[in-house]
């Protein structure tokens, strides 16, 4: 799978897709949706879809697919290869939501929670295959939030498509199991790529990613920079990360032209955030840049 787009800029969302089988453009098709990596404080979340003709449901079932969470990594890889070998009638697409995309979306001024972000990712993938010519008739979704409301939302968005939203859809419908496997396998690859973006974070790939994991907690404490916070592999909007930032990081006050004299006097012993950048600009370029800048591909500007 070509992850070059995500490798070029892993701070944003990225879409990957297989070729659209010709048969999916001429026959009624079913499509399943599932996600991987919703809960961890580390790494991307991946939304996956898989689709095939309704007439091929039994062929898909014969692949003996199962919910990806019940499978080992090796089993998931083997099943993904089987899906790839069935590319004459099976197609898939993924939306990789980077930790940065997730956190900046959740912390923007207008309310945009994880459920809304997930719904939009799923809807975008369905619209993508429709725009690609897939004759979609049946849609099966593992629920995010109340199933009835989500089903109504999808039914209104895609009239003419029979929508089924229910919990544990990944274990009930083979087409959703296929989507689950695609999301898990490629999400695993994307997480590895993101963790390898800086050599000092190699160990993060082997962490569970949940704060209940002692190794994850230790890693979060170790790589918390008091000024710049976390590397972009961390979902800084998670309460886990926010709590550590509040207790371990340096308080920062951003300069405000509208600030009155009383407030300015109250913080006169504090160092302005802007002073850091002024000092950096005066120092030699021979220094190794902080990862905050290298991860975001930022360079010093000396002249305008």
UniProtKB/TrEMBL annotation:
Keywords: Endonuclease, Hydrolase, Metal-binding, Nuclease. This is Ribonuclease. A divalent metal cation binds at residues 34-35, 142. One of its GO terms (cellular component) is ribonuclease H2 complex. Belongs to the RNase HII family. Eukaryotic subfamily. It catalyses: Endonucleolytic cleavage to 5'-phosphomonoester. Gene3D superfamilies: Ribonuclease H-like superfamily/Ribonuclease H (3.30.420.10), Ribonuclease hii. Domain 2 (1.10.10.460). Its cofactor is Mg(2+); Mn(2+). GO terms for molecular function: metal ion binding; RNA binding; RNA-DNA hybrid ribonuclease activity. The RNase H2 complex is a heterotrimer composed of the catalytic subunit RNASEH2A and the non-catalytic subunits RNASEH2B and RNASEH2C. It comes from the Eukaryota. Residues 28-250 form the RNase H type-2 domain. Its EC number is 3.1.26.4. GO terms for biological process: DNA replication, removal of RNA primer; mismatch repair. Catalytic subunit of RNase HII, an endonuclease that specifically degrades the RNA of RNA:DNA hybrids. Participates in DNA replication, possibly by mediating the removal of lagging-strand Okazaki fragment RNA primers during DNA replication. Mediates the excision of single ribonucleotides from DNA:RNA duplexes. PROSITE patterns: RNASE_H_2 (PS51975). It comes from Esox lucius. It holds the Pfam family RNase_HII. It is an enzyme of class 3 (hydrolase). CDD domains: RNase_HII_eukaryota_like. Manganese or magnesium. Binds 1 divalent metal ion per monomer in the absence of substrate. May bind a second metal ion after substrate binding.
């Amino acid at each position: 799978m070509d992850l070059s787009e995500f490798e070029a800029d892993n701070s944003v969302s990225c879409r990957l897709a297989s070729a659209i089988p010709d048969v999916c453009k001429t026959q009624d098709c079913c499509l399943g949706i599932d996600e991987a990596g919703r809960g961890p404080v580390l790494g991307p979340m991946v939304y996956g879809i898989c689709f095939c003709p309704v007439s091929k449901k039994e062929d898909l079932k014969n692949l003996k697919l199962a919910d990806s969470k019940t499978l080992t990594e090796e089993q998931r890889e083997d099943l993904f290869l089987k899906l790839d070998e069935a590319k004459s009638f099976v197609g898939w697409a993924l939306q990789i939501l980077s930790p940065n995309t997730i956190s900046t979306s959740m912390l923007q001024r207008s309310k945009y929670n994880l459920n809304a972000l997930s719904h939009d990712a799923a809807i975008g993938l369905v619209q993508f295959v429709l725009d690609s010519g897939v004759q979609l008739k049946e849609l099966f979704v593992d629920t995010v939030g109340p199933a009835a409301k989500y089903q109504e939302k999808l039914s209104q968005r895609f009239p003419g498509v029979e929508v089924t939203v229910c919990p544990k859809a990944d274990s009930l419908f083979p087409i959703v199991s296929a989507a689950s496997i695609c999301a898990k396998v490629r999400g695993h690859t994307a997480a590895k790529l993101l963790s390898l973006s800086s050599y000092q974070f190699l160990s993060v790939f082997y962490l569970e990613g949940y704060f209940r994991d002692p190794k994850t907690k230790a890693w979060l404490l170790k790589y918390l920079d008091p000024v710049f916070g976390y590397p972009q592999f961390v979902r800084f909007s998670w309460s886990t990360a926010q709590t550590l930032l509040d207790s371990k990081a340096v308080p920062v006050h951003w300069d405000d032209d509208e600030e009155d004299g009383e407030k300015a006097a109250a913080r006169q012993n504090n160092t302005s955030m802007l002073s850091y950048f002024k000092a950096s600009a005066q120092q030699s370029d021979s220094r190794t840049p902080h990862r905050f800048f290298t991860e975001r591909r930022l360079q010093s500007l000396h002249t305008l």
